[in-house]
Automatic annotation (TrEMBL):
This is Arginine--tRNA ligase. Belongs to the class-I aminoacyl-tRNA synthetase family. It comes from Paenibacillus lentus. GO terms for biological process: arginyl-tRNA aminoacylation. Residues 36-99 form the Arginyl-tRNA synthetase catalytic core domain. Transmembrane segments: none annotated.
């Protein structure tokens, strides 16, 4: 596997970029692993329905789905857990925040305000749950 990467970059806030040395890569023989019939569980998330979708949200779904397909291709019995966000509960928590939690600040978009309000509401739930009765 030596020389398969031409360089590695580490960039803020924690990205790791690997650059493939394609001249070396194309000279390698790659074989698929033998059939195993072992069970594996892959969990990956769906796009968050509470904010505008962009390519970054799609990335995790694509990586998870690709991994599932690759493992099935080489003979694994794959169980997929694809967690779908529950917009109903998240919307209800945001409404609770709108009615009960004052949140100040300047926001360009209402969705950004709701995102912060949702997080603040859930922190408040934790505070209330820990309070003595």
């Amino acid at each position: 596997m030596q020389n398969l990467l031409s360089r590695v970059e580490i960039l803020p806030p924690g990205f790791l970029n690997l650059f493939i040395n394609w001249e070396e890569w194309v000279q390698r023989d790659f074989e698929l692993p033998k059939y195993t019939n072992e069970k594996v569980v892959i969990e990956h998330t769906s796009i968050n329905p509470n904010k505008s979708a962009h390519i970054g949200h799609l990335r995790n779904s694509c990586i998870g789905d690709t991994l599932v397909r690759l493992l099935r291709r080489v003979g694994y019995h794959v169980e997929v857990h694809n967690y779908i966000d529950d917009l109903g509960n998240q919307l209800a928590d945001t409404v609770v925040g709108l009615l009960n939690i004052p949140l100040s600040g300047e926001y360009e978009r209402f969705g950004d305000y709701c995102w912060d309000l949702y997080a603040t509401t859930n922190k408040e739930y934790q505070t209330v749950e820990k309070a003595p009765i």
